[in-house]
Amino acid sequence: MRVDDAQQADELQTWQREREDPVSPECPAVGSPARFDPFELESVMLNLDASLRIRARHQFFGWTQGTLQSLVEHQLLICALHSDAPAKFYVDSFSTVPVEPTHFSELFRQDVFLVPHLIKSWEENHNQVVNCEPGNGGQFAGSALARELIRLGASHIVAHGTHDATGQLTSFFTFACRPGSIGPRQAYYVELLVPFLHAAWVRTQVNWQAKSAGARPAVTGFLTPREREILEWIYRGKSNIEVGMILKISPLTAKNHVQKILRKLGVLNRTQAVGKALALRILTT
User: Fold this and answer.
1) Phi and psi for 93 in degrees, rounded to 5?
2) Strand-pair category, 130-132 with 156-163
3) What pLDDT digit, counting tens, does each position of 45-76 carry?
4) Ordered alpha helix ranges (H), the chain
5) Higher-scoring residue by pLDDT: 220, 46
6) Which domain holds residue 230?
7) Looking at the structure, do residues 96 and 225 belong to the same domain, yes or no?
8) Of 171, 186, 204, which one is at a domain's C-terminal end?
9) Would residue 285 count as lying in a domain?
């Protein structure tokens, strides 16, 4: 281990010991796990290092659905960035299971039951990690997002966010997990990693290649101009209905184009299509 890495590890252990001090009853913590063992410490450091290297969406996808799973196993990650635009959040979702991530992004934006509860609980709990089981019914019975997560088998939610200097919500990250897969240890990892998630995800929104002189797109002849246009809107998180409205075509026509794009790229879902298109430079960040 290099000197810099050893110093970072010592600082991380010191921060952790300070965090394990007792908290007041009105501000419950998600758990105070014991100190990292060497394997866990190495895994944490690898994830922090990986997060610092992310500049594009496909890299963020690769990290969150790859290395990060070793610390926080999840079926779906929903990232929401607070915006002053008419849409309150810019939302993006990431998953390797056979689901349509953009569908969950839309459900998150439209939800008036589960999402407000998660954010309110986070704010009232002094911005600490929130655990939630929407499968218990009750107040979430009307939430389409909760129903879809239950259908996915990911009914345990762990959520955490970031805030600005005034305490206002900046971003919110929702991990949908299998019941029983998340305990105090994993919730602690979420608390530790969310600031790095935020920084990495925000960097993916910057058009780095457009700022690089001489960057040339790859040959994209195997996709038609219409398919490339639709792929661009998929990358921007638009649903089939939204793509249809933008391009003045029916949602069914948009869906047929999407299916052709998936077949041509040899992928299973929209997220994988975007990741592969970025890797092939059909899309540029």
Assistant:
1) -130, 150
2) antiparallel
3) 999 999 999 988 888 998 999 999 999 999 99
4) 3-19, 38-52, 57-64, 101-110, 114-124, 144-152, 184-204, 208-211, 225-235, 240-247, 251-265, 270-279
5) 46
6) 212-279
7) no
8) 204
9) no
Q: Are residues 171 and 233 in the same domain?
A: no
Categorize the per-residue pLDDT at 140 as very low, low, confident or very high, splitting at 50, 70 and 90. Answer: confident
Helix 251-265 vs helix 270-279: angle between axes, to the nearest 10 degrees? 50
Predicted local distance difference test score (pLDDT) of residue 168:
87
Instruction: Please indicate, yes or no, whether residues 160 and 38 belong to a single structural domain of this protein.
Output: yes
Buried b (16+ CB within 10 A) or exposed e, 152-183: bebbbbbbbbbeeeeeebebbbbbbbeeeebe
Is residue 3 domain-resident?
no
Same domain for 198 and 228, yes or no, is no
Measured between alpha carbons, how far is residue 228 from residues 21, 105, 241, 254, 285 in Å? 54, 22, 17, 12, 14
The confidence band for 11, taking pLDDT boundaries of 50, 70 and 90, is low
Q: What is the pTM of this model?
A: 0.66
Number of domains in the chain: 2
